[in-house]
Amino acid sequence: xxxxxxxxKEVWRRIxxxxxxxxxxxxxxxxxxxxxxxxxxxxxxxxxxxxTLFGENYVQEFxxxxxxxxxxxxxxxxxxxxxxxxVKYIVDKVECIHSVDSLKLAEEIERQAVxxxxxxxxxxxxxxxxxxxxxxxxxxxxxxxxxxxxSTLDRIEVRGLMTxxxxxxxEEVRPYFRRLRELRDRIVxxxxxxxxxxxxxxxxxxxxxxxxxxxxxxxxxxxxxLFGGR
Length: 230
Known about the structure:
Elements: H1 2-21, E1 30-34, H2 40-49, E2 53-56, H3 59-68, E3 75-78, H4 87-90, E4 96-100, H5 103-115, E5 121-127, H6 140-150, E6 156-163, H7 170-190, E7 200-202, H8 209-214, E8 219-222, H9 224-227
Parallel strand pairs: 1-2, 1-8, 2-3, 3-4, 4-5, 5-6, 6-7
């Protein structure tokens, strides 16, 4: 566990330094350990080292890990593409779904929240900020319309935005992070979204998280830097 503790300390040091460069509080950023493809033993080791928030991409893999790790006090986020017919399996097991990119998906989350007695299901709207055909997410302009529609659902709480920008050098990806922050601010301004409730920016991965923090990330999704390659 010493290795995991050392890795987490170093990552948090870098997050704190990036936050300070941007005049932000390090406590306003959360580290989400991306554990897809990783064995439960590694997840458990990072949990014992102090990580609390873990993200999974695939429903079946998540369900298997959830059962084994249900007593490890892990807070799970679902961060991968989610089919409507799989929502029922995870909605009562995760504290946030990052990858909502259509009203159809949001409406299914609403239906399942009702069935499972969930008063409010936190979600993030996924934005295809780089307009990449191979990635999910709504276009930036469509996101404003999507927010307007999804925010009318009784059992959904839209907490903010998420993106997977193009895989570029950190400084080259900075404008994409900035655009996501500006889009969140636009929704707060034009749609009267509560700036405290609608505040999350899930952006930044192992190779570019410091730039993401400088541009306003509140959740950084880190896999390789913690677990190594799969």
